[in-house]
Amino acid sequence: MKCALRYLLTALLLWMPLCSGLLRADNLDALENRLRQNQQIQEKVYVHTDNTCYFIGDTIWYKAYVVRADNLHPTDMSKMLYVELLAPDGVVVDRQRVVVSDKNYTCGQFALKDSLYSGYYEIRAYTRWMLNFNVKLRPYTRDDRALFYNYQMAADYYRDWEDLYSRVVPVYSRPREAGDYDGKYMYARPKREAPFVKKDKLLCKFFPEGGTLVEGLKSRVAFEVTDQDGQALTIGGTLDGKTKFKPTHMGRGTFYYTPSDSTHGRVTFQWKGDKYNFRLPKAEEAGAVLELQNPAFDGHTQSPTFALRSRGCAPAAYAVLCRGKLLQFQRLQGSTTVTPDVSQLPTGVNELMIFDAEANVLADRLFFVNHHDMGTPLQVSTDKLDYKPYEPIQLHIAATDGTSGMPVSVSLRDTRTDDSSYDDGNMLTDLLLSSDLKGFIASPAYYFAGDDAERRQALDVLMLVQGWRKYTPLATDKKQVGLGQMVFHRLRYTPEKTLTVEGIVRKQLDVPMLFVDDVQGLSSGTSVASLMAEKAANAVSQGGITMSGWNAGNNVAEGSLEDTENSQPDGSSSTDDASSDANATQTGTSEGSYLGVNQRSIKHEVLIEAEVEKDGMSAGSVQETHDGGQFLFQIPPFYDKAVLFLTAYDRKDSLKRCLTAGQDKYRFDEERYPDYYVTRHLFYPVFAHPYNYYQTHLPDIGTSLVIGEDSIDNSSSDGARTLRNISVKAKRRTRRALDYSKPAYVADAYDIYNEATDRGLSWGVINMGAFPPTACQTVYGNMNRYRSYNVVGKLDRYTFYTNFIPMQDIIKNRSDAALFKDLHLNRVDSIRFYTDFEPRNYTDRHTEQLNLEDVVVVYVPVADDGKRFTYRDRRIMLEGFTYPEEHYSPDYSTQKPAEPTDYRRTLYWNPNAVLDENGEFTATVYNNSKDTRVKVSAAGQAADGKFFVQE
User: Fold this and answer.
1) For 225-237, what is the mean pLDDT?
2) pLDDT at 538
3) Which residues pair with 859 in a beta bridge?
4) E strand or H helix at 948
5) Cα–Cα distance between 852 and 804 in angstroms, integer?
6) pLDDT tens, 50-63?
7) Using one digit for the tens of pLDDT, what is the confidence trace for 882-924?
């Protein structure tokens, strides 16, 4: 019996490694099958504009191209594109929904109204399908989450995306005289406080090739060295006091380093008389590293060769993907080198991933392949360069390969008003390179201007520094060796084909409405001045009170600002960045005793009715909700705007609550509770990303063009553009008076209320008395703060709301009844916001004081003591499709103006210039009222997917 057990145990020991090997093979097989069969294809967008810079009063004309990411051919998924114009501070000033044609393009225009400030504006474009990918959360606290109807709505609000199309264009102030474009000026939005001035500081980041450093393994480490603003520096450094190195391009370069288990590598720089030390990333005890042995490989006939080194793990397979599509998957069989077959790889950014037998990613890096097969020449010419006023211009476009029937977007402009830019790429460079890397790529044309070894090496370093896992997100596990395991997220959105309204019906909570007795309490806080006077009066008989009202003999008195703030030497206070861990909301007090309702889905389905009114016509539909209150209505397509009504009710109440019945006598009463809380699913991004240094600086200038309000009289100009941005340094950070003529943001009051309701910040009942902080949260979020910020609410210029104790008493000269009458949505036309905070620069230092307002919210009443229609249930101005206008291009062949009034900078814009059967397009265009030198810009895509490259 013992002998039999011994033989059985021996057999088990021999069988276990075989079983383990089969299990490992199954893991890799499963991964390969999933990569091949369940590809989550993404989309890309490119936007071609008519000019390089603009002035207030101009129109930005654009054409957008939407392609599949896997093959860069016209998309067959999304039929709708969202194009947004964002102000310099990051607030969306216009959003357009445009139809994507079968040939992947669409077009539109943004009018730069006089109410806008000059500065650097962002054009952002995306499809709803793109919002499935590369999502992260901005930091927010449990207090922030408690403001929302439930936790999911809070998480949806604080979402952020990394890979949406973005382009920054300078917008200058309107010329002082019509047609005088020689002077270009930007005037910053006025602030009440002088901005903090960044001190000189050197920054350096390190990027180990393959993703990590591993103890005992030689690694190539890429680095990027910049100043405090992000401007690349060319200074050299020293590794561990021995090895010297220096950047090769744009402040980037590489050096070799072998980490040990006892010391941490240290890099030293000398800059502006100071010494800077940086520690290299911590090395792992086990893992794998990659090294590209021929960084100057041509990517066409020569394949890249990667050396693979490992410790404490066993690399088992490698995969090569391009834009999310698996192209190669092979077992390593103990090999220490990887040479992907470049003939099987498409032009563009490719990704090499190394796996162990458990499908853990041990190493990962990007590399660029260039077969020079994605561009087709497009010849663009005019009969000459310089033209007299009103002179005809002969424009000619020809595809050298004879491509016919394809539309090309073409712009003919006055080149004397052009701006040079670090964003000097085209459709090819953007869709092949920039859109697959993280952040802004400065001067992408450099990498395609030649095919020499220097450019190829600079391009490879760019892969190391700005590469990221756009198509291959990983889930990290500290218990596992390597970078993590690939994750395949459940996609939330489907590609949009038609115009729809989607949302959910929720339980209506018994939230407080505003009553006349509540008006007094909206701003009942005693001011600091009154508290100080009271304190002084009560303590005079005891002595020891100074004229300021604080206790004598103490540096900091109880209740003073210094006692409650993080005081700075200049008397101001600042906050650091909010926690970068979105899961910080999960710690602290237990849910049962903390704020927030976190309401769930309704328990039974109800009826939801939608009605759309447009130009005197209406269309309506009723359906039963599903899956806990969800609904979806298909809306007939329309241009511009329409009015959407949404109401939900129980089936038993359908006869009296139906919109078409007209029997609901409380429909127009905003002071009534609706039966249910109805919200739309808003997927639009809320937040903007900070600008890169190279997005707001010009190559031939090198300094910011934005003039602060303090520097207007001191600015200098070279006759072409403003050169200086003078910083004002003050010993005391005093506040300027509020300039009511220059708000930071203005929006329709009903639109703000609807946005707040759909986001889960206003819970289905209109309460304009308590709405100011809700309106601020809707537009500005949490301002990257741990505590709530101070808000003042004003009706016109009368203060009716504060959520803090102000410095001075509020003068109250209106009766509660009169104020109550005006604190209704039907009496408020628009809402104006005044604040120094900029959502785009949310991490900038800012002053926080307990007794001064951070935001002033001003209700602008309806003119002439009038009223607007408001409703108990949802009434929404629904955005339809944006109608593409035709660019103005006059014909001066028969008659010329008597006076010079034509000051067009873009002389001709045609988003759909169709190439004839010979692959050509011609047009006759007329010059403006001035002597002009012209330049042509064209973009497009051939039928085979190649991009037209202008010659």
Assistant:
1) 95
2) 57
3) 795, 831
4) strand 947-950
5) 8
6) 999 999 999 999 99
7) 999 999 999 999 999 888 899 999 999 999 999 999 999 999 9
pLDDT, average across residues 753-778: 96
Tell me the DSSP string of 845-898: -----TTS-SEEEEEEEPGGG------SSEEEEEE-BPP-PPPP----SS---S
Left if phi > 0, otherwise alpha if psi is -120 to 50, otherwise beta: which for 865? left
Residue type, 147: L
DSSP string of 401-431? Answer: T---S-EEEEEEEEGGG----S----HHHHH
**pLDDT digits 0-9 by tens, 820-874:** 999 999 999 999 999 999 999 988 877 777 888 999 999 999 999 999 999 999 9
Q: What is the dihedral of CA 678, 683, 688, 694, to 10 degrees?
A: -170
Neighbours of 805 (CB within 10 A): 14
Would the pLDDT of 437 be above 90? yes
Q: Which two tokens stand for residue 169?
A: 């264009």
| Concatenated DSSP letters of 697-716 | S-TTT-S--EEPGGGTTT--
Q: Which residue has the higher pLDDT, 602 or 729?
A: 602
Question: H-helix or E-strand containing 455?
Answer: helix 453-466
Above 60 in pLDDT, residue 78?
yes
- pLDDT-derived band at 521, boundaries 50, 70, 90: confident
Which residues, including other chains, have CB under 8 Å from residue 471's CB and lie 6 or more apart? 42, 69, 321, 323, 324, 351
Structure tokens at 34: 């999933």
Q: What is the 3-state secondary structure (H, E, C) of 89-157?
A: CCCEEEEEEEECCCCCEEEEEEECCCCCCCEEEEEEEECCHHHHCCEEECCCCHHHHCCCCCHHHHHHH
831/746 Cα distance (integer angstroms): 6
Give helix then strand counts, H and E, for the chain: 11, 48
CA distance 879 to 876: 9
Burial class (CB in 10 A: 0-12, 13-18, 19+), 449: exposed
Query: Is residue 7 exposed (0-12), middle (13-18) or buried (19+ Cβ within 10 Å)?
Result: exposed
Specify burial of residue 224 (Cβ count, 10 A radius: 0-12, 13-18, 19+). buried
Q: Taking a C-beta distance cutoff of 8 angstroms, is the pair 705, 698 a contact?
A: yes
User: If we measure between CA atoms, which residue out of 855, 841, 849 comes closest to residue 773?
Assistant: 855
Query: Side chain identity at 918, as an amino acid letter?
Result: N
Kindly give the interhelix angle for 772-780 and 749-759, rounded to the nearest 10 degrees. Answer: 70
